[in-house]
Amino acid sequence: MLRQQDQPDQVVSDGALDLELRETVARYRAILASSLDPVITIDAHGIVQAASDSVQRVFGWSPQELSGLNISVLMPEPHRSAHDGYLARYRSTGVTNILGRPREFEAVHRDGRTIPVEISVNRVEVPGSDQPLFTAIIRDITARKESEQELRRHREHLEELVAERTGELEASNEQLRLADRLASIGTLAAGLGHDMNNVLLPIRCRLDALDADQLPEKSRRHFEEVRKSVQYLQQLADGLHLLSLDPEDAEASLEGTDLPEWWDQVGPLLARGLPRHVRLATSWPSTLPAVAVPPHRLTQAILNLVVNAGEAVGDDGKVRVWAHASDDRRFVRLGVSDNGHGMTPEVKRRALDAFFTTKKRGLGTGLGLSLVQGVVRSAGGLLTIDSGAGRGTTIVLELPVHSVRPSEAPDLPATVSVADPRMASFACTLLEAAGFTVTRDSCGDPGSAIFWLTDASPAALERARAFLDLGLRRRILVLGSAPDQWARLGAVVVDDPEDFETLRERVLEAASILTEHRDEPAKNPDSLRR
User: Fold this and answer.
1) H-state helical runs in 272-367
2) What CATH fold (topology level) applies to the domain 253-404?
3) How far, CA to CA in Å, does 437 sit from each of 211, 396, 412, 429, 507?
4) Each residue of 136-178: pLDDT tens digit?
5) Does the domain spanning 20-140 belong to CATH 3.30.450.20?
């Protein structure tokens, strides 16, 4: 009876227990379904027992499809083939390095592509079973890896920029050091040219004085050799002077350049810029028009081209500087050609870029051709390069012809009538250097000159009054002690003409007044006598 009475209560208890179990399973499935990251449970042999709904979003497998499969289907090789061995080793030894801490791996999507994931695996003990389960929480870290890769690219790019800027800074510092050295060289060249001129001027004057004497034939030969040497030194001094001038000097940049005359000045200096085994030649007609580039800028440009050409040729090196006018005589084509190794297409393409050079570090700035191009462009001209590997290089400057305004034409005639030929030669040299056209007149008649250098004889005094009464711009310089009448006429008196320094200062002082006022209208004679 009791057993029969207890039976309904037992059924009710079993039913309640079954309901509770179903509710627990339902809650477990709901929790799995809500998991953003895939959660997969496997047995000790790697067979999937359960999986969250999110496995389909990450791996392309539904939970139902994945259940019963070996977890190795989500692994790339060689782990897929080796995974069963990993589990067997764990079952026998109990040793593993994957449990209890997150690890990064690559997983395989159902379509075969790999996915970077982070896996946390824990062992689950099942009551009443001697075989554990293993639950893995798998996080897709594709976005994180992409961010890390992007950050790595940015970091590498930043490091490249830092290295590039550091290189540019080092190059700038090198350029500054080089510019400082070049400035020092320029200052040295200017000082050297100035000192050479100071030494050469009295030497030339004394040579002119000797030339006026009747020298014996043997002495004449020595005299001519000395004169040639002095002329060569004068050319070097003139070239140094042109190189030392500021290329941005606006006043000097208004000048034009007569090519044959310019080459007579700078040719010896430019030839010194070539190695000894290189031959330098020139070819141009004597009737070339002047080009619209000041001499000092043209010197700096052609020196760069000549030096580059000399470095590009071999033992049988030839460099030629040539020029010819266009048919309409509006332009002059000035070129520097060499028989060197020529340029590759890449070098030719970048030859005019600032700081580009094929020379070793420290031997070239990469500014030479860009400087030349700047000179040509400022004149309104064009620079072209004709070059090829193995056939040499020709660089042509197409320069406009210089138009001389009427006010720029020579209008400074001067007459020198000094009995002492040595003093006369010295004065002529000074006046020609100041831009005057000089006539030596032994009779002392200045004619149409505006500057008259004479002695202090009474006859010259009378001619001086007539000279000033012409009413034009006039200036008189008297050599030797002179009566007060000369000073009242406004003449500049040099008491001791043997003092070359004083004589030079007085001549140039008097000449500069006329040069500065060359374009002013003629003044009253009395105003010039003040």
Assistant:
1) 295-312, 345-350
2) Heat Shock Protein 90 (3.30.565)
3) 20, 35, 6, 11, 14
4) 999 998 888 899 999 999 999 999 989 888 888 887 777 666 6
5) yes
